[in-house]
Amino acid sequence: MDIDARGPRFGAAVTTVVLAAVLITGNVWLLAWQTLAFALGAAGGVGRSPYGWLFRTVVRPRIGPPTEFESPQPPRFAQAVGLVFAGLGLVGYGLGPEWLGLAATGAALAAAFLNATFGYCLGCELYLLVRRVAVRAE
């Protein structure tokens, strides 16, 4: 079942704000929250993430029904990629080196910003690349 294409972009906008706040404040708990949000999105799909729930219950009723849909698999894979980077960020901030936390969080922020601002999902593109390579390998 396809999903409203605006949902993942909304989630990316919220993620951009959260990760920017992490980089500004160095707040590990805020990064832990974002890591949990990525984990829920990767495990259950973007609709099961906290930002997906917020979009579905608060935003979508106010902006009307969707006009564009997309497959749920690429955004779900993107959530898993975000989870890896947020996890690396937690390791860096929590155990060191701090540069790892900054770099991993910055990379996740850059990807979220691209999706939120331009609708370009790096994790989704990576998903498609992995699928093409897997098909060729068969």
> What does the main sheet amount to?
2 strands, antiparallel
Q: What structural class do you assign from the helix and strand content?
A: mainly alpha
What string, H for helix and E for strand, traces the elements in order?
A: EHHHEHHH
Work out the helix count: 6
How are the strands of the largest sheet arranged? 1-2
The percent range for helix content is: over 70%
Rg of Cα set = 15 Å
Shape: globular
The poorly predicted ranges are none
Content of β-strand:
under 5%
Number of DSSP strands? 2
Give the termini distance in whole angstroms: 26 Å
Average pLDDT reading:
96
What does this structure look like?
With 138 residues, this protein is mostly helical. The protein has a two-stranded antiparallel sheet with strand order 1-2. Helix 1 packs antiparallel against helix 2, helix 1 runs antiparallel to helix 5 and helix 2 runs antiparallel to helix 4. The longest helix is centred in the middle third of the chain and has 23 residues. It is globular and about 45 Å long. The protein starts with a strand and ends with a helix. The mean pLDDT is 96.
